[in-house]
Design brief:
The chain is mainly alpha-helical and 203 residues long. It contains 9 helices and 5 strands; from the N terminus they run αββααβββαααααα.
Length: 203
Amino acid sequence: LPVSRTLSDIFDREGIVHRDVKSENILLSWPAADALQGSSLRDLKPLAETGAIKLCDFTLSLINGESRVHELTQKGYFVGTLRYCGPEILCTETGDQFSDVWSLGIVIYDMLSRNGAYFGMDRYAVMSHILDGPPLEVQNDSIRDLFGLDALIVRMQNKNPEERPTMKEVYSTCLKVQERATLEELSPSNITSSGPENNTANI
């Protein structure tokens, strides 16, 4: 939730596109991590508002369409981390806010799935799936279906960037999910599961 809000705000206010949104770039302070132990979802909103959840590493970011890493965007290269790149990035396009939407969709998938996106697949298989494969879907969890997260993840992985939701829409949906979960007083363990590559706390 706070990550989608941050990405929406920095794009609307400053024209910034992160281009390397991934689990490893979402940090949670140690005091906040300790505070989350045994907490319910209703505790997450005030936690997020304290700034305990941080989005870091803006090295590859675009500011009003301009990049500081032009040497990485030449023909034959792509910018970002493969597992979180949308198909347009793999086709060496510069990327825009919808590229960040794709990447955040993979982060959410990581948090909800047992193994994380593309677990056990080699680099070429991952590239092939991103370019031509179906959207990743979290399976066999009716609770998440009720909250609409599975449908959101699929929309965020649309091959056509312009058909993905905006980051503001992603934030709005995540906010509704949190509100519904709070009403049900679900614990984080009921809607998240961690895998070998999933060490990042809740959005």
